[in-house]
């Protein structure tokens, strides 16, 4: 079976990539599967593209193979696009999903329902040593609830209601999320060979 190394330590992402790639018979290997632990890669970029490239290129160089990386996050209009590239560490480090959610909800207390629009973004970077890195981008539009709901998924899923739904992303089954998510939409671009940069 073919394998793809994904430069992530996020268990939520890994579970989703495993589902996507199972349909094309590709086995997903992540940084959590390696015998030698890989140090955390500093995400010093100013854009999702830069951070995705940093992760993909560093691991590709390290193992001299093609590597996929995912840099993603939540963009909230009423917060001028925050948490954005800082989504993982919005409430500080180490990453704490619950604290991140609390911070976002606190910042939005006064914001009325009609102004709680947001979108998830996922930028995938594919790096191969000696070749130009390719990028694929996907979005998922929605709104931010005032309280958490649902147990599935990860990150900001319990407060994000995808457009056209009345449940949060965390109330959807993994299969349902994987049909509409930003990550799914980025993978579709990858499958179609439509790179964004
Ligand atoms: O860098 P890696 O190791 O891949 O893992 P990470 O969790 O640090 O990942 P990012 O740097 O891309 O930060 C993305 C954050 O955005 C949020 N996020 C991304 N995709 C999400 C999704 O599908 N559902 C909910 N939250 C998501 C979540 O809080 C992530 O921690
Ligand atoms: Mg990260």
TrEMBL record:
Is-annotated flag, keyword Cytoplasm?
Answer: no
Q: Does the keyword Metal-binding apply?
A: yes
Q: How does it assemble?
A: Homodimer.
Give the UniProt family note: Belongs to the HAM1 NTPase family.
Catalyzed chemical reaction(s):
ITP + H2O = IMP + diphosphate + H(+); XTP + H2O = XMP + diphosphate + H(+); dITP + H2O = dIMP + diphosphate + H(+)
According to the UniProt record, what class of enzyme is this?
hydrolase
**Protein's UniProt name:** dITP/XTP pyrophosphatase
Catalytic-site annotation from UniProt = 71
Question: What keywords is this UniProt entry annotated with?
Answer: Hydrolase, Magnesium, Metal-binding, Nucleotide metabolism, Nucleotide-binding
Q: Which residues form the signal peptide?
A: none
Entry binding sites for Mg(2+): 42, 71
Query: For this protein, what is the EC number?
Result: 3.6.1.66
- GO MF assignments: dITP diphosphatase activity; ITP diphosphatase activity; metal ion binding; nucleotide binding; ribonucleoside triphosphate phosphatase activity; XTP diphosphatase activity
What species was this sequence derived from? Answer: Oceanobacillus zhaokaii
